[in-house]
Design a protein that fits this description.
With 84 residues, the protein is mainly beta. It contains 1 helix and 5 strands, in the order H-E-E-E-E-E. Strand 3 and strand 4 form a beta hairpin.
Length: 84
């Protein structure tokens, strides 16, 4: 069973970051890595423990961020994609 993203992590990831980057950070007792899109939104997230090669062993999440023609957000949620 896959874990869920907590409210604190969800809030952190809702900020804008440097566009088109893979960012690596600590969040509580977990290591996190996330990729940003061309607008600076976090869109792919890895949560777990970083191994010797720098990869995260844990869970992978993908953000569903859908906007209408005017740019209003219609959907914004994270889908668990399983273990990495």
């Amino acid at each position: 069973m896959s874990m869920k993203i907590g409210e604190k992590l969800r809030k952190k990831l809702s900020r804008k970051f440097e566009p088109g980057q893979m960012l690596h950070q600590k969040f509580g007792r977990h290591d996190i890595s996330f990729k940003t899109d061309e607008e600076g939104n976090a869109v792919i997230l890895f949560v777990g423990k970083r191994n010797a090669e720098g990869n995260i062993q844990g869970e992978r999440f993908v953000r569903v961020l859908t906007r209408d023609i005017n740019g209003t957000v219609l959907k914004d949620h994270w889908d668990g994609k399983g273990r990495t």
